[in-house]
Amino acid sequence: MLLDKLTRKQEIHQTAAKLFNEMGFNAISMRDLAAELDIKASSLYNHISSKDEILSDIILNIGSQFTEGMLAIVNQEEDVITQLEQLISLHVGIVVDNPDAIGCLNNDWKHLNPESKSRLVKMRNDYEEQFRRIIKRGIVESKIVNLNPEVILFSLLSTLRSMNIWYSKKGSDDVNELTRQVKSILLEGVKVK
Amino acid sequence: MLLDKLTRKQEIHQTAAKLFNEMGFNAISMRDLAAELDIKASSLYNHISSKDEILSDIILNIGSQFTEGMLAIVNQEEDVITQLEQLISLHVGIVVDNPDAIGCLNNDWKHLNPESKSRLVKMRNDYEEQFRRIIKRGIVESKIVNLNPEVILFSLLSTLRSMNIWYSKKGSDDVNELTRQVKSILLEGVKVK
DNA sequence: ACATAAAACTAACAAATGTTAGTTAGTTTG
DNA sequence: CAAACTAACTAACATTTGTTAGTTTTATGT
To answer: Does the domain at residues A50-188 carry the CATH identifier 3.40.50.970?
Structure first.
């Protein structure tokens, strides 16, 4: 099933993610999307019900992947540093498999319809809250430096969230090596001691 | 002169930057922009010549600030770590003064007209190349960890470039304290040694 | 007070947008 | 074979878009 050929709807989602990522949701018309698939705009509506829905499907799917990944990590109750390393791996893994969809999530979540947007924002808030708790626990346990947890959180998230940009630019090389280096830089810093 | 009241054109730029940052260039119509200024769309054209031009003005202005800041730092020929700290201060300073315009630069540069886009991309490439040289020199001098300079560069830039997002969310508190913490996190990492 | 410039207005345009209705050709299934 | 389904098509729709032309109001300087 997973190795099957894509359904037409999945093809549309994939192509839409690519175009939305390149130019933004609002810059891509249904005619643009259709042209990329070599059909007419109206034919898209045999498979999807609105432009809105395409965006929601793409973004909420990625949101769910992060939510599930975070849940798995939190439930494992490992060491704080290990959990941070697992979070970094989670982000790298999702980026590698869905670079375009991540771009949509980062840039086009504002254009979700109200229902989808509120679902996403809730997922994101929950995700950040779990991340924050890990950091705070690390500070209490003296495993993480005693700085403003908010600054630590967003510094880490900034790098993790924009990995899609330079991942697509550089090509994979070796994903394991990339993960190792990102872990080292984020956790140990760039300065030689 | 700098403390003078804004010209109407500057007001338009300021309001446009705010709206573009909130919803993206393509999602804001000239009627939206005009409404925010309590005038009609056509009245805008007494002050600006096109929607395109507004975006170019906003973005290239910020681009220039980064270019000039980088030039000043490179010319000073300080220690590598000092230069990195100065770069962090440069980003914080520009973000604090122009959070909306930074959002435009990050998200809407793709929608610049061809001439402006190529100017911006050149500025950005030059900026990144100078940044890369500092990192490479740091590695040679054993001041910076011996990892892929590209990964170091984009990890640092990711955090610096998205500071606008959480700066506007948190309010300034104390900019000096913020700068100090970001320097510590990026250079020393988050893990207790 | 008068002339000039600055900045607003109304009305309209051609193009582009998301979407619907109705139709047709090809494929699968009973 | 006939029925049903899939997936494409053409044509058209009401809105929204950036922008222009022409006009009127408001502010400024002599």
So the answer is: no
